[in-house]
Design a protein that fits this description.
Strand content: 15-25%
Order of helices and strands: EEEEHHHHEEEHHH
Structural class: alpha/beta
CATH topology of the largest domain: Zincin-like
Shape: elongated
Helix content: 40-55%
Number of helices: 7
Radius of gyration: 21 Å
Largest sheet: 4 strands, mixed
Number of strands: 7
Number of domains: 2
Bound molecules: zinc ion
């Protein structure tokens, strides 16, 4: 549910049976997010919001509504670019080096560039479209190597090194970028 608020813009209301009280957090887009118990009505949610206005203003790093929408737009563009590029790049390297994966998923997590799950799904962050190609390729090769080694063992790194000789340098350089959009 979304509450349109004059001061905070679109406020995301998440209802959860696990919520005991009301909790305020900030979404990745900089929007105010309220977690409330399932039975909470819109009326009640608005009342909680009003009575906590001051604390929210002081404590939470919200973006103003204009910035929230600008970020939505940026994410949409990045997602479009990623969709037209990352699955094909992944497929290209998989074929080149003889890997087989089940599925490619695009994510926009804030903390990781990619992941590989035990059901052979490779997830790639759309934020990769903002980093130099050589680092993007490194992440892809890193996740592909996880298909054979689900850890960061010596054997895993040896396999990454087969396909990317400069992987140590690339791993380091990647830390200068932020996966969040
Ligand atoms: Zn890894």
């Amino acid at each position: 549910m979304i509450i349109e608020d004059k001061e905070f813009g679109e406020v995301i209301v998440r209802k959860s049976p696990l919520s005991r009280g009301v909790r305020f957090t900030v979404s990745t887009s900089g929007r105010l997010t309220m977690s409330v118990p399932t039975y909470t009505s819109t009326f009640l949610a608005k009342r909680f919001l009003n009575s906590n206005r001051e604390i929210i203003r002081e404590k939470l790093p919200l973006k103003d509504p204009k910035e929230q929408r600008a970020r939505d737009y940026q994410k949409k563009i990045l997602m479009k670019k990623a969709r037209e590029y990352l699955p094909y790049r992944l497929e290209y390297y998989a074929k080149l080096y003889g890997y087989s994966y089940e599925k490619c998923r695009l994510t926009h997590a804030n903390t990781r560039w990619g992941s590989c799950s035990s059901n052979r799904t490779i997830s790639l962050n759309i934020g990769l479209m903002k980093v130099p190609e050589v680092l993007r390729d490194y992440v892809i090769l890193h996740e592909l190597a996880h298909l054979n080694h689900m850890d960061h063992s010596k054997d895993f790194w040896a396999e990454v090194g087969l396909h990317d000789k400069n992987y140590k340098n690339h791993e380091k350089k990647l830390k200068m970028f932020n996966p969040g959009v």
